[in-house]
Amino acid sequence: MKNHIHLLQLNLNFSDFRFGLLCFVTAFVVTLIAIPPIISLIKKYRFYDLPNARKEHTNPIPTMGGVAIIAGMMISLFMWFPFSTIPAQLCFFLSVLVLLALGIMDDLKDLAAKYKFLVQLSLAVLIALSGIRITSLDGLFGIYDLSVSAQYTFTILAIVGITNAFNLIDGIDGLAGGLGFMSLIVLGLFLTLNGDANTALISFALGGGILAFLYFNLNPARIFMGDTGSLVLGFVIAILCIRLMQVNLTSLNPALPHAASFIAGLVLIPVFDTIRVFGIRIWKGRSPFVADKTHIHHLLTNQGFSHGFSARFICFIHGFILMEVYWLRNIRQELSIVVLLVLMLGITWLLKNLGLFVKNQKTGATAIIKAD
User: Fold this and answer.
1) pLDDT at position 368, please?
2) How far is the C-alpha of 272 from the C-alpha of 278, rounded, in Å?
3) Which residues contact 324 (CB under 8 A, 6 or more apart)?
4) Residues 99-123: tens digit of each pLDDT
5) What pLDDT does residue 367 have?
6) Other beta carbons within 10 Å of 359
7) Looking at the domain assignment, is residue 6 inside a domain?
8) Is the confidence at residue 4, as pLDDT, over 80?
9) How far apart are CA 190 and CA 23, in angstroms?
10) Which domain holds residue 132?
């Protein structure tokens, strides 16, 4: 059965998504069932995310919700994914398990950043060696095919950068999960349209687990995903983005005229925010790795907006960006990147001054009422 989505001008054959839907539903159900006993177990052994000066929550909250998310994803894939001995598959699933173990240790022991970085770097190299690499920028800035050394450099930077960007933006209830969920569904959609329905199953499976987790994570959160979840979330999104770039280049009927600028939109908010925050810290003479309250969600919570409103508002912006980057797919990639950067600068300014704007609106309304 085919259907046409007029808003995005997409023709979808729903039969192509039947296994994706099965993966999504299976992961959703498994994660939904798994989280309550995990919460009870964490409370029993007191594995809490404790509040401190740089965190937004004020009470100890159970963490390691990522265990349930990854369990849902893996059980779903064991049921529906066509496993083989392809090196890329073996390296991917091995990397997910290593990151899961790393995240658990970090949530329990609070590992030093350098150890986490070394593991991420090693896994990024492994993924690149397996064949999942950025081989071309498809004309972005006039660059097409990349040399082998450039392929490894761009791939490693992308994987490590996106992984840490999602890890760093996981600061308030529902934000990382909400952003990740939307990007995963879009990745699954366009991977399927490009003929790589098997890889799309990973995206739909993780998306289903994330959606179930959000039921327990939306403000007020009953559990956090912790590094156990955010590291794997960012890592998987990075891999799927690279894979989408690969298949879009080789597809006989590519779903996108160019994939590079489209991929930039999928990860724009966490990546832009990480670069902005690191730049501000360096400009002020501080280490970029010393945490503070300058991330995009802090721009709202520092003004008194609730976690729930802040997460929903930023996710709404992300949804708009996802549509915008698709609408801009036929213009020059460089112009599309400029539009995205200008958009993020404007959004950052808006978020930073939203409290003042709302206050002025309320003041004006009060004055009108008194005048009447």
Assistant:
1) 44
2) 10
3) 265, 339, 340, 343
4) 999 999 998 888 888 899 999 999 9
5) 45
6) 12
7) no
8) no
9) 16
10) 18-371
Kindly state the average pLDDT of the residues 84-107.
Answer: 93
* 1 located within any domain: no
Whose tokens are 């598959």? That residue is 89
Phi, psi of 4 (to 5 degrees): -110, 125
Tokens of 302: 């520092």
- CA 91 – CA 87 distance, rounded (Å): 6
Tell me if 11 is assigned to some domain: no
Q: Mean of the per-residue pLDDT values for the chain?
A: 89
Tokens 């290593």 correspond to what residue?
Answer: 98
- Give the CA dihedral 141, 142, 146, 147, nearest 10 degrees: -110
